[in-house]
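Task card 7
Instruction: Convert sequence to structure tokens.
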Amino acid sequence: MDEESQSYAGERVELRNLDELDIAFDERGLVPAVVQQAGSGELLMLAWMSRESLELTLGTGTSWFWSRSRQELWNKGATSGNVQKVRRVLVDCDADALLLEVDSPGPACHTGHRSCFFRAIAPMGASAWEGDDGRHDAGDSHPSDGED
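Output:
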């Protein structure tokens, strides 16, 4: 294990086997999984994992999730070709959320956006940032409203 994979947020990571962890799956047997681009830290998406999808992810090295709408397992990017290679899976302190660090070669969002987080909520009492029409290119300092 290299030095980068041994730490997160400046702290040492404790390496554990899945069987050593008591993952807090909810009443549906699911746990939220945040997906982050390795290296850049871009937040790409939030999805849900079952025990089976977590085991598939750890076993195959690609991201597997549980589709709540289709009620089935899905291998992220298998249809589009944008398969996410999983670098590592972290579990939070309460074991009720996961973080997948991935190499995502293309859009992570089903809308075609790089990230599912391409919309911002305007502050209370404002329709957008002052002097802002709400539309931005990817290189702008404010998030895009997704109306590209």
